[in-house]
Amino acid sequence: MSEIKVGTITTLKVERKIDTGYVLTNGKVEVLLHINEADGDLDVNQEVDVFIYQDKKGQTIATMSIPDIHLNTYGWAEVVDSVRNLGVFVDIGIQKEILVSKDDLPLLEGVWPKAGDELFVTLESDKRGRLLAKPVTEEIIEQERDRAQPSMLHQQTSGRVYRSTKVGSFIITEEGFRGFVHHTERKTEPRLGQWIEGRIIAVKDDGTINVSMRPIKTEGIEEDAEAILNYLKSNNGSVSLTDKSNPEEIRNTFNISKASFKRAIGKLLKENKVVQKNGETILQDES
């Protein structure tokens, strides 16, 4: 072997010691192991296992701090920074942070990961030898996931979002299940890499699960009613919606289904907090 490939773990021999560290070799190619990247003192001709990557100057170097994530191996990496129009940077356990390109992130930057979120990624190298972190594919998820049992229906679960779409959010749960949160089962769209909690509302024959982030119905009615009241109070006491309105108009305004809207409005009407007339829901004068 003559090539030393970035993103891989390889065994090299200490060729010589220099002021800044050690020169390692595979017999044909030399690479620097900086003294800060070495685990203690090394001897000439000693063999060491190292991870290969490019430093910020573009120089190929070695480290004895072996990350869990490398070429063709997936793992969780914490997001440390986000750069508009570029992507996010993740920490894989080496001194250099690795870019997840914007091309591999949602179009809407509002659901990009924030610092502290985690992404399930592997590493790839470009033609210039730079490492990039690539989010997990559905193919890998399908190979690696566990199967949920029917008895788990209605249980609480939690996990991280690994893919975000208009239709909904896909998660990997703590137990290793593949879960799906339909857009109607969430109040707001969670970020890619965000940790979420919910309850299992369906276990499919293939062992995947559907998850709801919405509260159970009785709690949801209270929450939706409160949201409608707050909206009315901040919008001159009225909204051009009733329980006869178009479902899409209701969702665009309150991000809830028509059925949820009707339940919440029914509660408010019963409590004499609102009235409906001329196609509007109107806040009652509390005085």
UniProtKB/TrEMBL annotation:
Any one Pfam family match given in the protein's UniProt record, by short name: S1_2
Leader sequence segment: none
Transmembrane segments: none
One annotated GO molecular function: nucleic acid binding
SUPFAM superfamilies to which the protein is assigned, alphabetical: Nucleic acid-binding proteins
Domain S1 motif, residue spans: 154-214
PROSITE patterns linked: S1
Annotated InterPro entries: CvfB_fam (IPR014464), CvfB_S1_2nd (IPR048588), CvfB_S1_3rd (IPR048587), CvfB_S1_st (IPR039566), CvfB_WH (IPR040764), NA-bd_OB-fold (IPR012340), S1_domain (IPR003029), WH-like_DNA-bd_sf (IPR036388)
Top-level taxon: Bacteria
Family named by the database record: Belongs to the CvfB family.
Protein name listed in UniProt: S1 motif domain-containing protein
